[in-house]
Amino acid sequence: SQPAVETDALIIGAGPAGLFQAFQLGLQGIAAQLVDALPHAGGQCYQLYGHKPIYDIPGIPVCSGLELVRRLEQQIAPMQVPRHLGQQVQSVEPMADGRWQIGTTAGTWFQARTVFIAAGVGAFVPKALKVPGAELLDPEQLLYHPQHLDGAAGREVLVYGGDEEAVTAAIGCAVEGGMRARKTYLMHRRDAFSAEPGQLAQLQQLRESGAVEVITGQITEVRQQDGRLQAVQWMDGEGNEHPLPLELLLVYLGISPRLGPLTDWGLALERKQLLVDPATLATSAPGIYAIGDIVSYPGKKRLILCAFHEATMAAFAAAEYLQGSKPLLEYTTTSARLHAILGVE
Ligand code: FAD
């Protein structure tokens, strides 16, 4: 296995809170790394309301969720924070030397002097296909919201779902110049798909040419032999079942947040929120801080603005914890040390 990644600070969650935490740690001269279950940064802003406007970020009268993420990314660029995406943190355990050992679903291990939990409403993970046989499949033949469609080339593929991502995948598998599956099926419980009008028109063309076959129904069972996908059993609107031979199953049932293993990390919780001291954002464990939507303290508001404040307080507290003395308060306007960190003159 890979050697553990050593870092002064590990930030769990790359939503707005985690991103700004990286910035504030950077200003304190503390090297941090980011982990997120999603394949991209942005948390709820990206995943739940990317194209909707936000009106209450100080100094930005209006911006979309995606625009805020883009601006935060730009702001933390000078910090060059390594990212470990598409993996969920599973375990956080104390080490004999006072550091923390953190393990992820991708098998990455970290050894961190401080940990910042910015887990929001939980790790965004794909909804699993819960039918008999699905759990026995070779993971290469059942992919959830895959980032690329390389595996589809030359195979009989079923895209399962009705949202924009599912439609995009079906088009990507079937279109000339795309991945060119041998056969592309798109199955959804209704013959209605939510996607941009242009995509729906393209899907319609592909249906008419026979490049995509739309099936209205639901998967009831996955048939496999020694982990190899053979077929799915599906049910139509009248309740009749049919087999569909297949080589690859791409599942798009949505991505939703799950609190997951966080409740097992031995930290004080109140109604599934981490209890913190609002002066330092310290949790009940030394060196572990928590910020953003995941925390609870008297008067806590689940707003991005409040998460930014918490990130700042936590960075100051962690600097004191790591160096044993209170850090100076310096202004980004005038401090030569901060200018050097930010790469500005
Ligand atoms: P999140 O944004 O939830 O990010 C947490 C990240 O942590 C996620 O990416 C998740 O995948 C990751 N994660 C969690 N656990 C793990 C783990 N174990 N391993 C790896 N990764 C993990 N707030 C405002 O201030 N103004 C608004 O106008 C506003 N509008 C909103 C509109 C909507 C529709 C919604 C849903 C929320 C809105 N909010 C708004 C609230 C705001 O989005 C949240 O307060 C903010 O996203 C919290 O940021 P966060 O970084 O704490 O958590």
UniProtKB/TrEMBL annotation:
Residues bound to FAD: 36, 44, 49, 89, 124, 293, 334
Keyword Coiled coil in record: no
Pfam family, one: Pyr_redox_2
UniProt keyword Isomerase, yes or no: no
Chemical reaction(s) catalysed: 2 reduced [2Fe-2S]-[ferredoxin] + NADP(+) + H(+) = 2 oxidized [2Fe-2S]-[ferredoxin] + NADPH
Cofactor(s) named in the record: FAD
UniProt entry keywords in alphabetical sequence: FAD, Flavoprotein, NADP, Oxidoreductase
Domain FAD/NAD(P)-binding: 8-298
Domain of life from the UniProt record: Bacteria
Enzyme Commission number(s) from the entry: 1.18.1.2
Subunit structure: Homodimer.
Name the UniProt record assigns to this protein: Ferredoxin--NADP reductase
